[in-house]
Amino acid sequence: MKQLSELQELITDAVDNLKFPAQPADLYEPISYILALGGKRLRPALLLMACDLFGGDVESAIEPAMAIEVFHNFTLMHDDIMDKAPLRRGKVTVHEKWNSNVAILSGDAMMVEANRLMMKVDNAILRPVLDIFNDTATGVCEGQQIDMTFEQQANVSIDEYLNMIKLKTAVLLGGTLKIGAIIGGAATADAQLLYDFGVNLGIAFQLQDDILDVYGDPYKFGKQVGGDILSNKKTYLLIKAIELATGSQADELNHWLTVQEFDATEKVKAVTSIYNQLDVRQYADEAMQTFAEKAFTALDTINLPEDRRQYLRQFADNLLVREY
Amino acid sequence: MKQLSELQELITDAVDNLKFPAQPADLYEPISYILALGGKRLRPALLLMACDLFGGDVESAIEPAMAIEVFHNFTLMHDDIMDKAPLRRGKVTVHEKWNSNVAILSGDAMMVEANRLMMKVDNAILRPVLDIFNDTATGVCEGQQIDMTFEQQANVSIDEYLNMIKLKTAVLLGGTLKIGAIIGGAATADAQLLYDFGVNLGIAFQLQDDILDVYGDPYKFGKQVGGDILSNKKTYLLIKAIELATGSQADELNHWLTVQEFDATEKVKAVTSIYNQLDVRQYADEAMQTFAEKAFTALDTINLPEDRRQYLRQFADNLLVREY
């Protein structure tokens, strides 16, 4: 088994070598620009890992892995327009550096390029691979739309929230692993189990992210603690707190959710205090554990040598036990 | 051979029966909305026609034909955002009825849906069909970007213009016919000839559109005469006029291209008069004839019974000889 870091390097090299036509410059330069912003290249590396797990030729999976990276960056380019985000990975976003029209159209061209890269598989698996890819892409679009709707929606239930994060982030993780497994020669049932592993791990990972936003060590987490609280983002913690709060706690929470002018430190402190009183962190931890266990259950059933299952377990442990 | 009107009806029924999930509503309602705006459904009907020409089963081509219709409407949805268009076929555009974010994301979901519909072909032709579809989609994106760039570009050459209209509109016509031919069982060479027929016919058709905008009968053309002149749209006529005008003619043309406040009728009359003095209509007519002849040359070489070639000739004649 190759190490994940080794696979990430393979991807980094492949991204560096991905060439687009010179013209029209405003269509292709933004694609090269966003792909060069970097990132961990975790998703494409996972596709290679899944292929490697089943004894497949990692080299033959590089273009489909690039398809996942190009697709993911296409969604980021369009999401950044929708979110009016000025920065992506510390650099100016495409719609700010060029304009929204360029970002819309370059994103569209990236989606086509992703399809083209995903087709670089043997004819025998072309249809199943593209079926998974299309289902994944639809899921991501649905998740993004549901997330945008949440901003205007007064009451979001925990189930709705879990469905949203499943579609918006976890399905891509699952689909990526499943495609890699199929390229690697996995049986359909095993590829599906790896999908289940990925989806549940993805949900657990997102729940951990919600927890870390409030309770994480800012130096290790690498984000501003309380960012979600300041933007009233409907995370697992906030949704649970709204569900549980009554009387003066509900009033206070509602005050912080509606007040227009506030001191940032004070708001984070006050909302965190309500979270603590309501024990929402514990609920979130339990939910995260539930999905992690589902992931491990799927993993235990995959028909793979024990050392490879152990490798996957290790990977999941590393992903979930970030310091906080 | 089925009549084109009959094929258009088949498509209209299929569009009516195309169902999307109810949720998320803001993702799927705009798709149903734009598809219900109607239009001639010419492109998907042409896919069926191409299939029928080679003796294929038209029913088996309906989903790929729908893919073309969904893809085309996806590009319209995104183009309307970029052009800030308030209306599409007399109805409010998606980004106006909902908002730009909805139009971006629904368009993305349509692109995925188009891919899914295009995959409803036999395994034996899945790869060639998708290859053509991806090349077509890339062409359309490139054409749209070049067209947007033209708005900021001082000098556009006739060759650049012809390349733009080829990519923006003609390649889709060619790709649609080629896919239909392949589904109908055409040999590769014949499918390619039908592609050449479609691309050249598409360019001729667009040139005719440029001429009709100035010289068309407004009652038969169905558009405001001189709309391109009023918006300084870089059409074949304008580009040729800029190329040919010298001295006071050039000054007068430049005046009308830069003046901010003007009487619409006066501007159309003055620019048309310059066009007449420079004979640009004749140049445009000749260019149109050149591409029409290229289309007919390709057609004459296709290995099909003479009555079917005649059918195609008739179709092209109907498309090109609109009253003006």
Automatic annotation (TrEMBL), chains A, B:
<dbReference type="InterPro" id="IPR000092">
    <property type="entry name" value="Polyprenyl_synt"/>
</dbReference>
<protein>
    <submittedName>
        <fullName>Geranylgeranyl diphosphate synthase, type II</fullName>
    </submittedName>
</protein>
<keyword id="KW-0808">Transferase</keyword>
<dbReference type="GO" id="GO:0004659">
    <property type="term" value="F:prenyltransferase activity"/>
</dbReference>
<dbReference type="GO" id="GO:0046872">
    <property type="term" value="F:metal ion binding"/>
</dbReference>
<dbReference type="InterPro" id="IPR008949">
    <property type="entry name" value="Isoprenoid_synthase_dom_sf"/>
</dbReference>
<dbReference type="Pfam" id="PF00348">
    <property type="entry name" value="polyprenyl_synt"/>
</dbReference>
<dbReference type="InterPro" id="IPR033749">
    <property type="entry name" value="Polyprenyl_synt_CS"/>
</dbReference>
<comment type="similarity">
    <text>Belongs to the FPP/GGPP synthase family.</text>
</comment>
<dbReference type="GO" id="GO:0008299">
    <property type="term" value="P:isoprenoid biosynthetic process"/>
</dbReference>
<keyword id="KW-0460">Magnesium</keyword>
<keyword id="KW-0479">Metal-binding</keyword>
